[in-house]
Write a structure and sequence with these properties.
By secondary structure, this protein is of the alpha+beta class. The protein contains 22 helices and 9 strands. Among the domains are: 98 residues, no CATH class; 138 residues, no CATH class; 67 residues, Homeodomain-like (Arc Repressor Mutant, subunit A). The termini are far apart. About 10% of the residues have low confidence.
């Protein structure tokens, strides 16, 4: 038998290790960096509710009445430099240090006066007024009032209109409507025929075929051949198999081409031209790129960044709270938290500025000449240029938008992969897509370019690309294949 001795006990040992500790302040700084404009504004509004020391700065001049009751942003910048001039340090001012700092500033007796609302400060602009877009149900309900149907049948019409989807199609059958309202199917069909005459044409159809037939019937352009094509050969029209249709109908290919063009001119989704029930989201650019003389100047959109201040009123309360240690401790913590938040927002602005400036430097040909000159760009290139980690670059461009002379773009748009040109330079996929659109727009419709033809044309322009990649980019642009683009 073998015998093993096991020793159980406690030992005290000293060892030195390195590890990254994510403090709450550092986590907050990382979150603020990756927030987009709307998320940052929501986060700041939450902080304004939980931290009484924070105040949101006025958009008016600092010389106004509200400038007296809060410390301006420039003052906060100076104070944050005192905390740590090189990084987001973890030092916090104690209550004693806060008291000494406040005493040195020597507030006057009116510095803590709370701001008052001044009705004369109102500014009116057209941006303050919004329009209410008409929805599809509202548009149809208005026409229902004047429809040539009995008043007792309008309840059926209202039920039908409210059951339509966003594209204007029926979601219920005639039998289901008849059963739900306890009316005859004949009455439902009478009301449905009346709604089919409403604007937009094709609304309240069961499927696409009926939608197209209703539109042509209202326009008086429906004949036997067109009706048969829609009912039996709609998929062949989509696949551009016109010769098959011409052979089976006994008409020429040119006549089928005219029918195809007529069908393609119709609206397959009548309801989409009206306002959606969903909430509209607007884009607010975080940075603005402007061309001044021959240089591109990057500026942070200050209107998209919340302007925060520290209330002088609570600093005065802290200065006079020597007899209440709990109050002193609470206000000191709130002041440190406020300064850290302002400092994190300021560093967010600086990081975004540095990243976008580097992007503009790399993509200057795009801003000068257009989308065809967009180069390949990676997070690593910008990280090395700015001197930060790739993850920081990723967070700083997440959900951020740039307003430039070329339009408004998501900053991620400029980070794209691609292929190598004949000269070894990187050509982005967006540039190649632009070339493909140019080739398709300039081709002969009776003899469109195949994917292999596009490969040769792109090679002539110095772009080395495979046929499979061309087909992939063409699909992403929603461009049909050459057989489906051909016209007869």
């Amino acid at each position: 038998w073998l015998r093993y001795d096991m020793r159980l006990g406690y030992d005290l040992t000293i060892e030195q290790t390195q590890k990254l500790v994510m403090t709450p302040e550092l986590i907050q700084a990382i979150q603020i960096l990756q927030f987009n404009t709307q998320e940052l504004d929501n986060y700041v509004q939450e902080q304004l509710l939980v931290n009484p020391v924070l105040e949101q700065g006025s958009t008016h001049s600092e010389t106004g009445e509200n400038a007296d009751n809060a410390e301006p942003l420039e003052g906060m910048r100076e104070r944050t430099r005192e905390l740590d001039s090189n990084s987001l340090g973890s030092n916090e001012l104690s209550s004693k240090e806060w008291a000494e700092h406040i005493k040195e500033r020597e507030y006057d007796d009116i510095s803590y006066k709370q701001g008052e609302y001044n009705k004369d400060d109102k500014e009116y602009s057209f941006e303050q007024f919004v329009t209410s877009d008409v929805t599809l149900p509202e548009h149809l309900m208005f026409q229902l009032q004047f429809a040539p149907i009995k008043r007792s049948c309008r309840m059926i019409g209202k039920y039908i209109i409210e059951s339509l989807d966003d594209n204007g199609y029926m979601t219920l059958t005639v039998e289901e409507i008849s059963r739900a309202l306890n009316v005859s199917q004949e009455k439902v069909n009478i009301v449905l025929d009346a709604i089919h005459a409403f604007d937009p044409a094709g609304v309240a159809a069961i499927d696409l075929k009926e939608c197209l037939l209703i539109q042509l019937e209202n326009r008086g352009e429906l004949d036997e051949n067109i009706e048969r094509v829609i009912k039996e050969y709609l998929e062949d029209i989509a696949a551009n198999r016109l010769t098959i249709i011409a052979r089976e109908l006994g008409i020429s290919v040119q006549e089928v081409q005219e029918i195809s063009d007529l069908i393609r001119s119709l609206e397959p989704k009548p309801g989409r031209q009206f306002a959606s029930q969903a909430t509209t989201r607007y884009i607010v650019p975080d940075v603005i790129v402007e061309k001044v003389n021959s240089e591109y100047v990057v500026t942070i959109n200050e209107s998209s960044t919340p302007r925060l201040m520290v209330s002088s009123y609570y600093e005065k309360v802290l200065r006079e709270s020597h007899n209440d240690p709990n109050l002193t401790k609470f206000l000191s913590g709130r002041l440190n938290s406020a300064i850290w938040l302002i400092k994190s927002i300021e560093q967010r602005k600086q990081t975004i500025y540095n990243v976008v400036s580097a992007v503009v430097k790399f993509q200057q040909d795009f801003f000068d000449k257009g989308p065809k000159f967009l180069k390949t760009l990676t997070l690593k290139q910008i990280a090395e240029e700015v001197g930060i980690h790739e993850s920081t670059v990723s967070r700083s461009i997440n959900g951020k938008y740039m307003q430039s002379p070329r339009g408004v773009f998501e900053i991620k748009y400029f980070f794209t992969s691609g292929v190598s040109g004949n000269q070894g330079e990187g050509i982005s996929s967006q540039s190649i897509k632009t070339f493909i659109k140019e080739i398709v727009s300039g081709e002969d419709p009776k003899c469109p370019y195949s994917d292999q033809d596009m490969v040769k044309l792109l090679n002539d322009r110095g772009i080395d690309i495979s046929r499979r990649t061309v087909a992939k980019y063409r699909d992403e642009l929603n461009i049909l294949s050459s057989s489906k683009r051909k016209r007869y």
